[in-house]
Amino acid sequence: MKRLLFVFVVFLSLLSSSAFSQSNNQEFRVSFSKLLKASSAEFVFQPPDGFSFIGISAYCMDNTQDVTVHYRLKRMGSWTPWIAFWLFTDGDTPDRVSFEAPPVTGEFSAIQFKASKSINEEIVFRLFIPDPKIKNSANCLEAISDNPGECSCLIPDVCRKECWCSSDACSEPYEATLTESTHIIIHHSAGHNSSDDYAAVVAYYWDLHVNTNGWDDIGYNWLIDPNGVIYEGRGDGVQGAHFSCMNWETTGICMIGNYVYATPGEASLQSLRNLLAWEVCSKDLDPLGSKFHSSSELDLFIISGHLDGNNSQSDHSCAKGTVCPGDQLYKLLPEIRTDVASLACMNIDSTAFESDYISINQFLVFPNPCRGEFSISLIFKENAGHYCIEILDAIGRIIYEKRGTAYKEDMLFPFDRRDLLPGQYLVKVTTDQEIVVKAIILNR
Hints:
CATH superfamily of the largest domain: Peptidoglycan recognition protein-like
Distance between the termini: 65 Å
CATH class of the largest domain: Alpha Beta
Largest sheet: 6 strands, mixed
Number of domains: 3
Structural class: mainly beta
Shape: elongated
Number of strands: 27
Helix content: 10-25%
Number of helices: 5
């Protein structure tokens, strides 16, 4: 008996689609309930010109279903092989089962979906088409907060939500749960190792988490692309949805890319180190330490990988054996912890940050962050004596030094150090009575 294959075709135009959130998203609701065996649904449309990628996901509002789904594309009149969606297992989707698939790149004229069996509940297939207005995320970086307390490590500039979201959808208020993090969990996104539009990739992850998984917001607190750009997710102090349902007292940082076999580049690793330095410094955490994590009921490194939660027996856990953040990133975590602990900003005597200076009336470094051009303004007291200005790199090496006699009037020292690599540096001023240090961030 021949296998029954049922195909129905719907002609759609993206130009007439309704807009969901921040892109011209398409939702295709397909019922496979009438079929005894294999089934497929074909949709024909013209993708927009110049699209960078199309994100594909799906969900079914019946989390008891054991079904696999696939898609394939028609290119140049021929169908590609079927491409499997993978089941989302790294978090809680209590009212549904969710799927994700590799993104589509390159021209195509039609897409076809297939389910492995007949099911009663319809499957919603979702296509995320990036908004062309989301571009050049590196051009809209900004500082997001003042340095808290005595923390000497500055947070790098980030791409705020307004930078990667072209509408108000991802900024709509929801009842966020605040938390004080005791652990920082490192992830990889498992895709998008290369892109010319990472702001759109972040927007896709927001759309995937909110409109496919049914969450309130993107799951991560921060994301870092392979170029080293840091993106605001839920932001600091907000409980995310990233650590297999054990999210209380955690901060989630996602490295965009798949690092099972590939190794993260230095640009993204340096941004990770700088972000981690600020996180542990501002929360008074030991980057080399470990402690009990109440939600997972595990002793975890302060800086851990997602897969470190796999052995949890906690009632909160929904861990299913994730490999996140990928073997190549995970094996770098011991080195990353050591690098963060060795940063110059992590090893400064806190007494240097007292506002009651003994011999200095004013010490300013501006603009901060900057792109290599900045100034140091100093006003010394009469008893200051001699001064020494030093600029130190992230590991404490002196890259500039100037000595002189301190005068009471405003002393301005302009610098053009566009030759330096992006990152965090320290400005250290020593007088006969004291040492004062400020951090500065150089961006590109």
